[in-house]
């Protein structure tokens, strides 16, 4: 019987490829090989925890972001569950920290142990993702490599959201890979996988806000083939972000779906002073405790109006974009520096230094896998992997997002941490591919030889020219230790730490100031004064350097010298500089000049009570009672607790 044209077309058409995806065992089904890795990693962390508790000041001493999170968690435990302002920092970590404190009391040891547990879970997730994307051997190699990378264990013993953020990012990647596998096999429930993946992205943004970039990136690629899946992913992301948006809308009437520091973080990495790694933005002190207020003050001064937190964040986003638009060449150079820092072996510090910790806790040196080896093998694995196909698409897009975030903002060891697992998995697949080819052929073929040469070349560039330590960043760690010691009234030890910092970074004016503060507490006023003078030389625009000198000179009744210092510092501050100048002019009986200084202070800030009080005292001494009363009244109106103004007004017989 003759075949129909349709039959012939079916016979001649190529058969549709069938996708075979091996099912994965349950997450809790740990193979023996991985169990041995986990056992070794747990033993390492137990010893590390013990030695860290004995040898590091940071075990109980918190600095910068760690101090902010701890203080926030304690306020939550004390009953301030909702707060009165928008979330400025990502809220998930401090709320979970508060839960730990509520259950176990204020003990950091439990926090470290729980985070070490997250570190072990991260190894399991890395193994599972590597197995799902490539094969079980790749997953095992990746997990073994992760167990040998020091920053993972290092950040687990810090009061930071790094370990939690890494766990959430790996959960996101595991769910995306799961969705790809379900879609590739046509298994029912794939849409639920995308919804869960989106929800996990939304939750992760409450710890690492940059993770939100993965949602539009992945959904855009997904929409080409599966529009409903892309919609489910985005819907899940919005749902996961809803608690932060709802909180900010409730407490402040401000629609802010992420924490409020996005704009300033972007500006910190994109301004004329930016260098690729963390750098204090112009006009800021670098203190996380005061950053929100400084940001608000600068934005409102520059715009001349009261602003919501979302508007402040947008203002600094625009400032960063304005820098890029006005200096495209400088921005391209800056991005090249960021890329170099991202691929370099140096583990850039923002608060804590892995290098200092290796000196304090040599046990950490046992984790000897350098980032240079990870990036070399990882990039070679990506190049050799070819065009990504499911479920490798999820891994590729996750990697692209993890690369983009530090390039958009700035690079640090903590901020590139989510990139490392992806590079480890690609590197493990590369090692597996080379080993299989060598075993099969008895020698390394030209293709594998080229890949090995590429990996080695990248690793050497990463380790040497790009791996140079940043002197100011490492010096800043000693500065932070000095601040911690100073808070504990260990002033002599603090001075030694400040000296170590200044030996590497003599231009750190804040270190000179705090060094001077310690010397002053120890009764060495002349040495303190010299330290403050060095701060002035390091940063002519830093008001604190002038104020610190003036306070000592005033205390020692060296009023002429104090006046000279304040005159040098007038342009660096507002009303306080004129007020302190007026005080010492008054002590020198140069009353007309003192009046001019105080009046300038109240012109800058009409509600500056102390200046009104001093003016009232001078005018009362001149017998001008009406003017004196007016200034005393303004002082009391601005500060009802100003007893000097109240007393002056009572002496003149004036009503409040």
Unreliable stretches (pLDDT < 50, length at least 5) are 1-19
How many extended strands? 0
Number of helices: 31
Taking the alpha carbons of the first and last residues, their distance comes to: 115 Å
Radius of gyration in whole Å, from Cα?
30 Å
Structural class comes to mainly alpha
What is the share of helical residues? over 70%
User: How is the main sheet built?
Assistant: none
Shape: elongated
Strand content range: under 5%
Mean pLDDT, nearest integer?
91
Write the layout of secondary structure elements.
Elements: H1 5-12, H2 32-55, H3 64-77, H4 92-104, H5 108-133, H6 136-147, H7 150-156, H8 162-185, H9 190-205, H10 214-223, H11 227-252, H12 262-269, H13 288-303, H14 309-326, H15 328-343, H16 354-360, H17 371-385, H18 392-408, H19 419-441, H20 446-463, H21 471-487, H22 491-504, H23 509-521, H24 525-538, H25 543-555, H26 559-569, H27 575-587, H28 591-604, H29 609-621, H30 625-638, H31 643-652
Describe this protein's structure.
- This protein is mainly alpha-helical and about 650 residues long.
- Among the domains are: about 30-250, no CATH class; about 470-530, Tetratricopeptide repeat domain (Serine Threonine Protein Phosphatase 5, Tetratricopeptide repeat, Alpha Horseshoe); about 540-605, Serine Threonine Protein Phosphatase 5, Tetratricopeptide repeat; about 605-655, no CATH class.
- The chain has helices spanning about 5-10, 30-55, 65-75, 90-105, 110-135, 135-145, 150-155, 160-185, 190-205, 215-225, 225-250, 260-270, 290-305, 310-325, 330-345, 355-360, 370-385, 390-410, 420-440, 445-465, 470-485, 490-505, 510-520, 525-540, 545-555, 560-570, 575-585, 590-605, 610-620, 625-640, 645-650.
- Helix 13 (about 290-305) packs across helix 14, helix 27 (about 575-585) runs antiparallel to helix 28 (about 590-605) and helix 29 packs parallel to helix 31.
């Amino acid at each position: 019987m003759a075949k129909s044209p349709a039959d012939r077309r079916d016979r001649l058409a190529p058969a549709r490829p069938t996708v075979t995806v091996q099912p994965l065992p349950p997450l809790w089904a740990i193979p023996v090989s991985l169990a041995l890795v986990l056992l070794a990693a747990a033993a390492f962390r137990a010893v590390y925890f013990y030695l860290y508790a004995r040898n590091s000041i940071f075990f109980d001493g918190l600095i910068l972001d760690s101090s902010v999170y701890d203080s926030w968690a304690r306020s939550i435990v004390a009953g301030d569950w909702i707060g009165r302002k928008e979330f400025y920092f990502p809220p998930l970590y401090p709320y979970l920290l508060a839960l730990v404190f509520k259950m176990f009391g204020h003990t950091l040891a439990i926090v470290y142990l729980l985070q070490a547990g997250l570190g072990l879970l991260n190894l399991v997730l890395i193994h599972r993702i590597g197995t799902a994307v490539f094969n079980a051997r790749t997953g095992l190699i990746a997990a073994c490599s992760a167990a040998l990378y020091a920053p993972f264990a290092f950040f687990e013993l810090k009061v930071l959201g790094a370990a939690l953020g890494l766990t959430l990012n790996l959960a996101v990647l595991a769910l995306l890979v799961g969705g790809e596998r379900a879609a590739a096999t046509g298994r029912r429930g794939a849409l639920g996988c995308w919804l869960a993946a989106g929800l996990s992205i939304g939750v992760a943004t409450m710890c690492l806000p940059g993770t939100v970039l993965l949602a539009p990136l992945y959904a855009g690629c997904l929409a080409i083939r599966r529009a409903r899946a892309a919609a489910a992913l985005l819907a899940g992301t919005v749902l996961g972000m809803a608690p932060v948006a709802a909180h900010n809308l409730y407490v402040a009437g401000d629609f802010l779906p992420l924490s409020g520091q996005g704009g300033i973080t972007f500006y910190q990495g994109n301004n004329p002073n930016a260098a690729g790694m963390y750098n204090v933005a112009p006009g800021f002190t670098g203190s996380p405790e005061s950053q929100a207020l400084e940001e608000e003050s600068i934005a409102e001064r520059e715009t001349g109006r009261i602003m919501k937190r979302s508007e402040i964040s947008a203002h600094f986003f625009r400032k960063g974009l304005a820098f890029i638009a006005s200096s495209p060449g400088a921005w391209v150079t800056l991005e090249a520096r960021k890329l170099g820092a991202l691929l370099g072996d140096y583990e850039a510090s923002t608060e804590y230094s892995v290098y200092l910790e290796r000196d304090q806790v040599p046990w950490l040196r046992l984790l000897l896998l350098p980032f240079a080896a990870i990036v070399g093998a990882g990039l070679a694995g990506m190049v050799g992997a070819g065009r990504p196909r499911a479920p490798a698409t999820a891994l590729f897009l996750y990697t692209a997002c993890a690369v983009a975030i530090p390039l958009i903002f700035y690079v640090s060891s903590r901020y590139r941490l989510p990139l490392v697992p992806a590079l480890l998995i690609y590197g493990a697949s590369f090692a597996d591919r080379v080993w299989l080819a060598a075993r099969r052929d008895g020698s390394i073929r030209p293709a594998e030889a080229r890949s090995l040469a590429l990996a080695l070349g990248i690793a050497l560039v990463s380790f040497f020219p790009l791996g140079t330590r940043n002197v100011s960043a490492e010096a800043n760690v000693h500065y932070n230790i000095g601040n911690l010691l100073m808070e504990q009234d260990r002033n002599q030890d603090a001075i030694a730490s400040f000296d170590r910092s200044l030996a590497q970074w003599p231009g750190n004016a804040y270190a000179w100031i705090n060094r001077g503060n310690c010397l002053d507490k120890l009764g060495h006023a002349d040495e303190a004064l010299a330290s403050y003078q060095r701060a002035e030389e390091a940063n002519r625009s830093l008001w604190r350097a002038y104020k610190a000198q003036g306070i000592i000179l005033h205390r020692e009744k060296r009023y002429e010298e104090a006046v000279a210092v304040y005159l040098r510092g007038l342009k660096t501050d507002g009303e306080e500089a004129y007020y302190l100048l007026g005080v010492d002019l008054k002590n020198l009986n140069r009353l007309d000049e003192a009046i001019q200084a105080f009046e300038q202070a109240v012109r800058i800030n009409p509600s500056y009570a102390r200046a009104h009080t001093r003016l009232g005292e001078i005018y009362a001494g001149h017998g001008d009672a009406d003017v004196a009363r007016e200034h005393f009244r303004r002082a009391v109106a601005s500060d009802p607790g100003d007893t000097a103004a109240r007393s002056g007004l009572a002496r003149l017989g004036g009503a409040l």
